[in-house]
# Entry
Amino acid sequence: MSESDLKREKIIDAARERFSHYGYPKTTIAELADDCAMSPGNIYRFFKGKIDIAVEIARREALSAVEVIEAVLECPVRSSRQRLEEVVFADLRYTFHLLENRPKTLELAQIVVSDRPQFQIESLRRERRVFQRILHEGQASGEFYIDNVAATTIALHAATTKYRYAQLFTNQTLSELERELAHVMTVIMRGLMSAQDAKPIAETIIPPEDTNAMDSAS
Amino acid sequence: MSESDLKREKIIDAARERFSHYGYPKTTIAELADDCAMSPGNIYRFFKGKIDIAVEIARREALSAVEVIEAVLECPVRSSRQRLEEVVFADLRYTFHLLENRPKTLELAQIVVSDRPQFQIESLRRERRVFQRILHEGQASGEFYIDNVAATTIALHAATTKYRYAQLFTNQTLSELERELAHVMTVIMRGLMSAQDAKPIAETIIPPEDTNAMDSAS
DNA sequence: ATAGTGAATAATTTATTGATTGTTCAATTT
DNA sequence: AAATTGAACAATCAATAAATTATTCACTAT
# Structure
């Protein structure tokens, strides 16, 4: 790691410390420069602007969050079904505790997203990839009956929206949410494991379209 | 309708007009009094405070929104399944257009909810009752296999969270959302229509509790 | 008594100013 | 040359003053 890279890391560390302690708005470039024993101007040789430091921190945070979820994939389980449930519940618990114990992390993420909407889109996509892997496995093993894995992944992810950063939507307790999610998963699991056909009559409700981006989405 | 009630209605009408046009904060009691040809002080003989006028308007709005959804129940359909899909799609479209065409309505609702959290809880409960009625019907007719209708209603409602006021969560277009919801409903429908047992292994994941408010919730 | 007023007051919002901060860049050091 | 500085400038924020507004209430009219 080059001399330059080390200094960049030092800025990130100093920023992480101050952002999580005092918040993004209350942290000044001058303070970060002080922490790194350099001048304010010099910070700009490493980052285009203050917001870009936040983006970098949020990006790493998001990556390590997915890693936490992915870690669940390593544990040996009886079935794809159990794997899927574990991942969904891990998501609920991880994001719930994040908001409870480190609220500044959400604040930072919201600031980043409001400036860089693409950031959220990519975070969600990364998360979906974990879901998709499980669905693929389940399909391959014959445990799940899915004719369009990509679309079903998106559906599953959408149906569990309420259980990511749940405090944004409700003031239920974690155990209330856990019990509720258990019921949601019961219905979904029966849907994934059922061999019977249940093509949406929705096709009579929504107008069809030629190019359907979702069906090939990753 | 008494003289007094008529005046109360006049205040509500004037407020609705101004709130939807200029927004709640920019509307003054003095203006409403002017509109109704009365003094500011007299408004307070009809409402305890400014916020209570907003509460009354939001309450009526919420009731008529549920009525729109309930109207779908009147149409003759082939199955409970179709009924359920129509209601869910109606919800998506109604709330989507609401935010698109009358953004002040959301603003008002958010102001009311931030002051009266109970308001939101009751609105959601009313909406769930429509879902519950359909699930009951489907169960009675043998079309759905549901062992706990109350819990499944809550699960269904939670799983479709993203499709109520969808613009709060995403900037997808209405047709993207419609296609996505169709896939969500495909999975859920298979879950509801499947006779096979799929008790959650979640019970091994979440700790059980003696008093489970949800299982008897309406 | 009931309905209504409008000036008085308390609470909130808006405007303004001064101070702080993000960012740039010509000059300096390594 | 590459790295760094720090003063200059523009943008943003905080504090406070000014104005507006919500609410009350003693009083008047019906």
Observations:
- Chain B touches chain A through 52 residues (CB under 8 Å).
